[in-house]
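Working notes for the structural subgroup meeting. M.R. asked for a predicted model of this chain before we commit to crystallization trials. I am recording the input and output together here so anyone reviewing the notebook later can reproduce the run.

Input as submitted:
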Amino acid sequence: MDTSADPAAPPDAAARRAARPVICYPEDTLPDPDLPALRAARGKAVKVGETLVPPRHARCWDMKAGQFFRITSVEGPQVGDLNLWARADPTERFYSGKTRALHGTHLTTGDRLWSTFPHLRPLATIVQDTLGWYSIDADGASVHDVIGTRCDPYTQRLLGGNDYHHCCHSNLTRALAGHVGRDVREVEPLVHDVLNVFMCTGFTRDRGQYFMKASPVRPGDFIEFYAEIDLIGGLSACPGGDCSTEFSSDVAACQPLLVEVFDAGGPVRMPPRSSGYSWP
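Returned structure, recorded in token form:
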């Protein structure tokens, strides 16, 4: 960004910058996720399935409302790109931008993953996060972000001039196509901005550029969710590995990620309804 032609600051510049920040969407009016009830149900849940996501690939799996799913680092530091779709209608899918506006740039226990318009309802609630201790570090970075869009072959070609076929966008597209038995070109528009599981990211202070740094995740660390409605989950084991060097290449060391599904015998509560808003 070239700032050489920027105009001089006005005399009241300091006063303008000193304006008080106002939270756009206060969380105190959001529905209570009732973590005690979710944790009580989780305590009696039994494992009913698992999916191992290979390095530089993606996998999809199904979940019923009321089930829990856990994403675990099993062999070494690795980040993952998570998509969620309503199983009854995959055009209803995770809306990372609105989730970011409601909860913040990085998610942890008690936060919820909200769906696209016109539904705007919680798809899943985070019930456990072993990296919750990380908070925000001296660089302004934290984990599990909803600011990165996902690595993709189009930006790769734009910036690098080459074609790379194991970007998270590509991985998720192929995984969803195989899962629902449709062509990749047909399902590609359903692949969406992600929850960057285990990824450690922030914005630089000087220009506000999105940055990544080595993920603090270690084998055994996990993040766990409660499925609010029947879902299809999709997870890509990012070709950036722990994102300490680069992504969208075959250079970084990459590890698998494990997805486990647990059933507590039924939903803790009624699945949330779509937004009650209607056009006049």
